[in-house]
Amino acid sequence: MNFHTRKWVKPEDLNPNGTLFGGSLLRWIDEEAAIYAIVQLGNQRVVTKYMSEINFVSASRKGDIIELGITATEFGRTSITLRCEVRNKITRKSILTVDRMVFVNLGEDGLPAAHGRTHIKYVEDQFPDGSVE
Known about the structure:
single chain; alpha+beta; Thiol Ester Dehydrase, Chain A; six-stranded antiparallel beta sheet; globular
């Protein structure tokens, strides 16, 4: 799993207990997962269909730097299934896991549309001439 997105936990992200508010974290996850699905499917029209149990493993506090990891685990005809882990960037301690998030690819009419993808597309696949900087 690649961890690309990093967030700095700020005072406005905290709950009354002084730890990262789960709603803020879930917003970040949904946005990151949607971007991942868009890149994988090559279509900006995707929607979140399903999110499995969300397992909060440990707390994060003000000043922590966290990182979000997302990977595709399955490709359906019109969907992509992702897995997510959030961890502390410095300690590598797991903060949260989501085993399944399903995104649906939509056509211009707003209805589910086949995407034709069957495997993860990596950066090097997008730039086969080695022009990745």
